[in-house]
Input
Amino acid sequence: MTPPSSLDVARDAYRAISLYAPNREPARIDVSDNTNLWGVPPAAERAVREVGTSTVTRYPSLYAPQLKAALADYLGVEPSMIVTGCGSDDVLDSAIRAFAEPGDRVAVPAPSFAMIPIFARMNGVEPVTVALTGACDVDADAMLATEARIIYLCSPNNPTGNALSRAAVERIVREAPGVVIVDEAYAEFSAAPSAVDFLGAHERLLVSRTMSKAFGLAGLRVGYAAGAPALVAEVEKSRGPYKINALAERAAVAALRDDMAWVRDHVAEAVANRERLSGELRALGLAPVPSEANFVLAPTPRGVALARRMRELGVAVRAFDDLGRDVPAFREAGGQGLRISVGPWAAMAETLAVLQTALGEL
Ligand code: PMP
Output
């Protein structure tokens, strides 16, 4: 007897989902995934090296109370307002599952974080995309008009890098019929005020953050969100127990308690290098979107071809071919662009040299 194909047994909604598979082949310089190219902060690294056997053989805490306490201090909120997860991916996925029934809709700006439509489908929820405006800002009227059960916003937005306007975010938070998620994975690199400020007045707002970027812990998978205690309690139910592993909790707490000077210094260097990189890209004839994150997006009709050639030359950047022709900033580029993560200047200089070579050839 032949075994049934996976499609015969999988949920219907899963037919529209493919595995998330960006090119992760090692490259001499990898500026493709917006992680911290300066490395791991020292106290977190010590915590990883010094982990004992008992930490590994026993289960971790159910809901990471020590980490919640450290994150609450960091954000200036109560520990009861924090939910953690295995990366902010896990928090976002859990939040969609917690607040939308199968068949409901989640409104997502386009372009924005590519995983959100995937998490929506994984939960039987329909993603509805709304194009960004001319300035790569969120179209508040169109987002609200979807009447979606969940509205997702990302500020600074990945992959454009700009922060969304505060007035638009505040209006959506005030008027949305359901839950609003503001993904602030890149908040540390931005001068724009955080949506955390709105939490006191809005009980259906969830602000998600991560330790994968400014804190350099992407491999340990530590994400979190802040919201009203009743709201985060629902996300926690949906997330389930034991999702922060014991090693990750120790390293993350060490970073929050002892590495803030390291984090601040490297964020400052990232911001300075981001401005310098943007200037160099303009000098090469590109028009990068003004960024508030640790990466820069340069729309170009040759984005995919340039990235392919740059990888042959040892530098991995992230190419996009689906930025959206209906977004004015990307129309001329046919929806294509290159996203370059910001790191130490030596890596930026080599990236720029390889980009210049590729531009000259194509
Ligand atoms: N949100 C945004 C906007 C991101 O760019 C990323 C990482 N690419 C994440 C969330 C997920 O980060 P993590 O799961 O590592 O916390």
User: Anything to note?
Assistant: The CA atoms of residues 156 and 187 lie 7 Å apart. The chain has 14 helices and twelve strands. The mean pLDDT is 96. Residues 260-283 form the longest helix (24 residues).
